[in-house]
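Re: the 240-residue chain
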Amino acid sequence: MKKTLLAAALAAFGTAALAEPGYVTQSAGTGPVTTPFGLCVHSGTWTPDQAVTPCDAVPRAAAAPPPAPVAQTGPARAPEAETLPQTESPRGPVLEKVSLSTDVLFDFGKAELKDAGKEKLDELAGRIQDANLEAIVATGHADRIGKDDANQKLSEARAKAVKDYLGSKVATQNIEVAGKGEAEPVTGAACERLGPEQRKNRKLVECLQPDRRVEIEVFGTRTAAGDRQGGAAGAGATAR
C-alpha cells in the first residue's frame, strides 16, 4: 500500500510544470503545489529573491541612497558686497578753515572782541563775501590754566562772540558754535615743567598761547567769476 501511495505522489510531481521559478506548480496551472499544512513546495533551486506572494513574503527593495552632491567645477562665487550709499556732509564742502589766536581776538580770560579781533573777522568775511555759504562753525578752545568748568564756559562764550559779529558781516545766519574748553590742546608736552599753573606765570601763559584759539570752518561753494560778471551785467550793476 505504501509503495502505491508513493508512486501516486511521484506521478503527481512528475506531471507538474514549473510555472513559477523556484516553485512546483499544478499541472493544470491552478497554482503552486502545497503541503497538507498549506505551505508552497519549493523547487531545489529556490532562492529568497524568487519569493512570490502568498507563498512567501517578498523582500522589500532597499531604499536608494540620496544622490551624491554634484561637485562644483568652477571657483566658488564670492558673495556680492553690499554697496553703501555715498553720503555728503549736510553742510557742503569746506570752503575755508582758519584758526585765530584768542590773544588777538580777546584779552586774557575775557570774551569781548577787541578791535584787532574784529579786523581779523572782517578779513575773513571779505574773503567769503562772494561765496554761496551753507554754514559757518566757530569752535572755541582754552588753555589748561584755571578750572575745567571755567575754561569750558570761556571757550563757549568766545565762540558765541565770534558768531554774533560774523552774523552781521556774512550772507548766512546758519552759524553754529561749540566750546571744547581745554580738552583739545595743540601744544602737547612742549609746555611741561614751566612752573606753577597760574596766569601770573608769564612764561607758561606765553607757551600755551596756541591752545587759546577759535577755529572757524566755512562751508559752501564759490561762484565762478564769469557767472558773477554775467549776473551783474544782466541786472545793470557795475562791477566792483
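The chain has a mean pLDDT of 77.
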